[in-house]
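INPUT
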Amino acid sequence: MLKINNLHAEIDGKKILKGLTLEVKAGEVAAIMGPNGSGKSTLSYIIAGRPGYEVTEGSVTLNGVDILALEANERAAAGVFLAFQYPLEIPGVATMTFLKAAMNAQARQRGEAELTTPDFIKKVRSAAKDLKIDPEMLKRPLNVGFSGGEKKRMEILQMALLAPKFAILDETDSGLDIDALRIVADGVNALRNRERGFLVITHYQRLLDYIRPDSVHVMARGEIVRSGGPTLALELEKSGYAGYADEAA
Amino acid sequence: MNAPLTRPQTDAETGLERQFKALAVAEPWRQAAFARFAGLGLPNRRVEAWHFTDMRAAMAQALPLAAPDSQIAKTRLRGLAAEGTRLVFVNGGFVPAASDTLPEGVTIRLDQRVPEAHADALVTLNQAFAPQATLLEIAPGTLLQAPLQLIFAHGGPASAVFSRVGVKVGEGAQITLGEIYDGLDHGHHINSLLDIEVGDKASVAHGCDGAGADALCVLSLFVRLGHMAKFTSFAMLDGGRMMRRQIFADLAGEHADIALSGLMLGRGAAHLDTTLTINHAQPHGMSREIFRSLLDDAAHGVYQGKVIVKPHAQKTDGKMMSKAILLHDGARMDNKPELEIFADDVVCGHGATVGGLDAEQIFYLQARGIPRPEAEALLLEAFAAEVIEPVENDGFKRHFKDRLAHWLQARGGSV
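OUTPUT
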């Protein structure tokens, strides 16, 4: 599925990723944990194709496709999805308009037929209901005036509708109270299957109580410094990142 | 006419003088208007109101005066909406045969009244050259559902067109008024003047479409509002060469309410200018000016807004905002909002912004699979929606949305 090999990247000449290697298999939920500033968000942005980062060495492939050679929208059409830590507000663009534009754009790029409007509305309504999103919210401009929890639920709604092959969740738990966290986690868990891979980036172990990972990786100073099973997250919860602080500083 | 010039005449000024003499006009007020023009000359950067739009440099020469064109009048011209009453002007002159029958409560006649002296050189030029005004009168209490549409059609070789239309809206009447310029692709010089008087408790919803791939246009709009009168206006300017829209609004009655908005779409080497003066002369007036500009390539946009609140005009509520998005390094916007407040109990504010598209927003849309040109079009459409959505007449709104979509499509993006 997703293979990251010896990835080096910098922004404005500052090296952020320093030889990161990681593989996530189809059906696997991999968690990346690490102290602030370790490069976790940078990794997610580089996979999604945010401009401004320069990859100086290494590769990222999804099912053998060189992701780094694609534009951000082409990566999305190829099946990459990033749930943003800070979803953007888009004034003037109704949420429904945006959802339809995104779904149709992906279908077009994959050479698939666009959804009919009734099918589209049916799909959105059903997915919104699962995530306890008020249909009135879908008429409002995208994310404008949404609470932190609403924005995160909207990210998961988009993920459910776009049905990516591989999803990255960047600090999806930040700013969520326990009820919102449960709704978001249920939404993610409902999308888990044998074909779909997940990369769950989080600072805290709490999220992993709700989204049980298959593997846990510790990131520090721009690389993976330790990998293990789900118990590694519990261990980090107890000991903190102190053991990695020197490396992270 | 022989006012001393402190600077050498340009070829265009010499040409205008020759043309005016050749007309041998009898009306003293037209002679007086030309004398005022001769004293002012074509405005250049040293004239404050024209600082960003150098008409003296732009008008290289005076074009021959337009002749009536019978061919255009035969084609069916569309206004801003399919419904309503079309009043067709060809090369500046009203053509009754090409126009629709007037609805009840509306009359039209040629008006010989003397226009007031004005300090703007292009207005004086209009007063001197336009033979007369076409005056539309709306009887008091008339409620028109379908819009009145002024269609200014142009044709033939490049020529100078002067038109002047007056609209007098009687007390309590309500109308929707369209103003559309057609066929400005042949290098015409357009000098149009629209003078609207909104009577007490009357209301006018106005829409203007100024599109011209290759014309030098000055569209002047005069508005006078009576007691509790209301005037709303949206204008789309999309010119390939030079287009200036100047508005002179006078809130002459208490509780008058004016809302002016517009969208300027510039590409290539287009120069688009919206300049307005709002004069709050009476208490409890309300004014809103909301303008948006999208400027691509080497286009240059200008917004100048001056809101004057006279000492007597207490409780005035005024807000002005101009926002521009530059889509290319070569594009430029000059914003100059001004308040001149002489009353002490008022709420007035203004703002102006110039920027590019938000890179983070574009990335967010792209990360959902939307290709960049389409993502840009979505954001630009949203930016423009703030001024297009409030357009009251559905037909007008559709027209403006279609025009914007067409403009965005030509950029390579569509939604």
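end of record. Chain A has a mean pLDDT of 92.
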